[in-house]
Amino acid sequence: MFSFFKKKAPAATPAVADAPVAAPPSAPVATPVAAPVVAQVPAVPAPVATRTTDPEREGWMNRLKTGLKKTGGGIQAVFVNAQIDDALYEELEDALLMADTGIPATTHILQDLKDRVWRTSATTPAAVRAQLVESVAEVLRPLQRPLEVGRHTPTVIMVAGVNGAGKTTSIGKLTKHLANSNCSVLLAAADTFRAAAREQLAVWADRNLVEIVSQEGGDPGAVSFDAVNAGRARGKDVVLVDTAGRLPTQLHLMDELKKIKRVVTKADGTAPHEVVLVIDGNTGQNALSQVQAFDEALGLTGLVVTKLDGTAKGGVLCAIARWGAQRKGGPVPVYFIGVGEKLEDLETFDAHEFAQALIG
C-alpha cells in the first residue's frame, strides 16, 4: 500500500500526455499512479480497522508490534491486575516517561486519559488501556501526513541526518517505494565525505534500477546541482539528494548543509520541495534535539524514524508531536517509520496503528 504517494492533478495530467514522448520506458508511470493512488489518499487518516483488510498491512502491523515490544512492555505491564485509582496513573506516568515520551506529552496524555475514562465510565484495566490507545493516537495524529510527489517535476527531496541514523539505507528503501509506484527516480550521491557512502548508494541504485549522479571526491553542492538539472532534463519524477551526515552541534558542518540547500535552489527556484530528516528511534530525547536543531538550520518538512525495533524509547514520537504543536508552521510530519533492515520494514506512518502497537 503506497498511500504516502499523491500526485496532484495539475502535474499528473501533463505527465500522462508527455510520458510516451519524453521517456518511453516510463510510459506506464502515470496510469497506475494518478487514478489508484489518489483514490487511496482518503484512507490515510482512516482508523486502523479499515487497514486490516490489506494482508500486507497486517504483516506490517505484526512487525510493528514486535518492534515496539520493548517500548510498550513497561506501559502494558501497568495494567496487569490493576485497580483504577491514582496509583495506576502514577505508575503509568513513570512508564510513559521511561519510554521517552517526555514531560509535556506525558502530562497531556494522562489528563486526556482521565477525561476519557470519566466520560466513558471505564471501570476495567482493559477499558482504560483502550482509552489510552485513543489518547496516544490523538497526540500523534498531527504527525500523520502523506508525502506528496507530483506538484513539481521533478520533486526534489533533500535528505539529512547524523551518521549512523540509517539515512542512506532509508533513501534506498524510499526509492523502492517510489519505483514500485512506477515513479521515476534519480539519486544524487552528495554524501561525498563519508567513506563508501557513494558506493552504498550506488548499490541501492542498482537494486532499484534507477539512475544515480555522483562524483568521486566531488563537492556535495556541485553533485546536487548537477542532479537537479539532470532530473529535469531526463523528465524524472523525483530527485533524492543524499547529503552528508552531520552532528547538529558542529556548526561548520551544518553550514555545509545550508550551502547544499542554497545550491539546490539555484538549480530550481522552487526546490528543495522536501527537506527530510532521518532520525534513529533508539536515541530517545536526543532525537527530539536533532529535529529541533536541523529544523532551525534547514526548515524541515518531514521525518523518517528508523530502528524502532528493540528500543525502549519509541515514545519519543509523542514528544516530537507535542513540540510540533508549539512550532511555528505546525508539526513536522513523520512520513515513514522503520522497524528493521528489510525493504518491507519501512512503511508509512499511521498514528492509530502506532498507538495500538505500542499500548496493545
UniProtKB/TrEMBL annotation:
GO biological process, one term: SRP-dependent cotranslational protein targeting to membrane
SMART domains, A to Z: AAA, SRP54, SRP54_N
Residues binding GTP, per UniProt: 161-168, 242-246, 306-309
Membrane topology annotation: Peripheral membrane protein
CC terms in the record's Gene Ontology section: cytoplasm; plasma membrane
Catalytic activity: GTP + H2O = GDP + phosphate + H(+)
Family: Belongs to the GTP-binding SRP family. FtsY subfamily.
Name of the featured protein: Signal recognition particle receptor FtsY
